[in-house]
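Notes from hallway chat w/ T.B., transcribed later so I don't forget. T.B. wanted the structure written out for a chain they're using in a teaching module, and asked if we could keep both sequence and structure tokens in one place. Agreed to drop them here.
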Amino acid sequence: MANKITAIKVKVNNGVATAKMAFSHPMLTYNQAKSKTGKADDANFITHITGKIGSETVLDISTSQFFSKNPIFKFQFKCDTFKLGTALTGRQRDTIEQELKKKLGRQPTYVERNEAINSLYPNKGDFLTIVATDRKGNTYKESVELVSRKKKK
């Protein structure tokens, strides 16, 4: 399993966004590295996490070796100054694809499908970009669009 950010989910409620991140990382401490390889210097863990929307920083933390393996991290920030996009459901995406298929007479390509979605729903939201750095200097980056969620009735 590669070290990476495996998921970011953001829910917005009353101007406050709650972001959840999941990492795939062994978070090898100095003691674990010494017992596995004989060298404490082989330790590798996430040391810094930054979250930005455009040029504005909404999260900036230094971490240590004491997070668990494959950590899940949650934080909140005010998002009333950021633009929220419209969440498309699977049904809306399927309808767009069916209409394109009829129009083109064939299955639309990924690019054609995305262009159609962007033209029908042009109001993209701002993107939350998470950047994590580990002790070995590796950088992991992932982005997710801020979208409004429809409340379930």
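Follow-up for T.B.: The longest strand covers residues 4-13. Might be a good example for the class.
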